[in-house]
Amino acid sequence: MSESLLAVGTRKGLLIFERQKGKWRLLREAHLGSPVPYASVDPRTGDLWASIDHGHWGQKLHRSSDLGESWQELTAPKYPESAVLREDKPATLRYLWVIAYGAAEQPGRIYFGTEPGGLFVSDDNGETCHLVESLWNHPSREKCWMGGGRDEAGIHSIVVDPRDPRHVTVGISCAGVFESKDDCATWQPRNRGLIAAFLPDPNIDVGHDPHLLVGCASSPDVLWQQNHCGIFRTSDGAENWQSVHEESGPANFGFAISVDPKNADTAWVVPATSDQVRIAVDRALCVCRTDDGGKSWQAFRKGLPQENCYDFAFRHALDQDGDDLAFGVATGGLYFSDDRGESWQCLGEHLPPIYSVRFLPAG
Amino acid sequence: MPTVRFPPHLLRHVKAAPVVAVRGATVAEALLDVERIFPGVRDYLVDERGSLRKHVNIFIGEQWVRDRVALSDPIAEDAEVFVFQALSGG
């Protein structure tokens, strides 16, 4: 019996770690040698999904019904011929950035977030999918969406409201947060209160860079985002965002963020120094937690490297499961905590660069 | 019939024979026949518009394919088509 399982998407494949009797070990490898930007389990079916960035051979989509022992390749999302990037340049899939799952009452509903700027939907468990053209054709896209860390804008965050699965909120870098309340038929930007300090107008409606958007399952009107320009929280369903980062402490810039599904006031981030250098703050790695909705933050360092450390965590590389947390860093360190992030155990110092970390259902 | 030969790096990822005889008068037609014989392989070579992926190359005999967008280069009945992948980086 596994006490915990972790799917770790890395530059050199998918690694699955298992904890038994308190000890961690590498259980299996999959897609060895190929970058895995994202891997997670659909809680409705137990299927393990993985996106593969073959680079030369293109972006691929794989699904496993036995937690990675065997895999089936599915047709990756394809932009329709009508999808033009700009100036008649055809849109083609460049990156399969995130996979998200519909509600229990939507069997087979899977979402894919892609670069360039695509949200794809499947209603047959990934056998087929189509571009959500209502978002692709949003009038802001051609003028205001742009690449951030990647060449073109990309969708990396998809939040499905557990009260109403027709309510979907996505995070786009760079464009911002967009919301649909009618099952992806129409979309509204939801960026009021965010700051885009890198633009001539920091309060612009569209053009923001949410590095990751997460929702609180027990309080779906509360969403958090680690943004390029700090940490923001909303308690009114993204109508208004409030800045909650520290001005002088480490909890400010970063990529990854996780919110406690049972407590909308508790969230974790893995801070980095500024957008210009992207390394651990003061060359010392920490995880910051707030328990009061971002009014105050505590930095936890026990078990994390505290000197000559240049690590930072990519946006999908932090996850939480009850009191357990895990995160991975771009330089190949993998860390686990069983006390809500207050102390950490290193599961591997020399892994490949880590893109995503997700707990899997154990048992 | 023309033949298409695949590199070992591709055969790691797909179910296909190293060499396959195909029907077709152009590279594009040959790749469509490859897809008929080995479903899923074509997506590794071309994008959703049918254009050759950036770091994939195709030789017809000893000649580079010229039309990377539509793959309209003609191939003879006895042509040997080679698929290449540029390996790079760490």
- CATH class type of chain B: Alpha Beta
Task: Tell me the helix content of chain B.
Answer: 10-25%
The low-pLDDT segments of chain B are none
Q: State which percent range the strand residues of chain A make up.
A: 35-45%
Give the N-terminus to C-terminus distance of chain B in angstroms: 38 Å
Any guess at the CATH architecture of chain B? Answer: Roll
Largest interface: A-B, 17 and 19 residues
Total strand count of chain B, please? 5
Compressed to H and E, one letter per element, the order of chain B equals: EHEHHEEE
* CATH topology annotation of chain B: Ubiquitin-like (UB roll)
On the 0-100 scale, what is the average pLDDT of chain B?
93
Give me the secondary-structure topology:
The complex is a heterodimer of chains A (363) and B (90).
Chain A: E1 4-10, E2 13-20, E3 23-30, E4 38-41, E5 48-53, E6 59-64, E7 72-74, E8 84-86, E9 89-90, E10 95-101, E11 110-115, E12 118-122, E13 130-131, H1 133-136, H2 141-144, E14 154-160, E15 168-173, E16 176-180, E17 188-189, E18 210-215, E19 223-227, E20 230-234, E21 242-243, E22 254-259, E23 267-271, H3 274-277, E24 287-290, E25 298-300, E26 318-321, E27 324-328, E28 334-337, E29 345-348, E30 354-360
Antiparallel strand pairs in A: 1-2, 1-30, 2-3, 4-5, 5-6, 6-7, 8-9, 10-11, 11-12, 12-13, 14-15, 15-16, 16-17, 18-19, 19-20, 20-21, 22-23, 23-24, 24-25, 26-27, 27-28, 28-29
Chain B: E1 3-5, H1 8-11, E2 19-21, H2 27-37, H3 42-45, E3 56-60, E4 63-64, E5 80-85
Parallel strand pairs in B: 1-5
Antiparallel strand pairs in B: 1-2, 3-4, 3-5
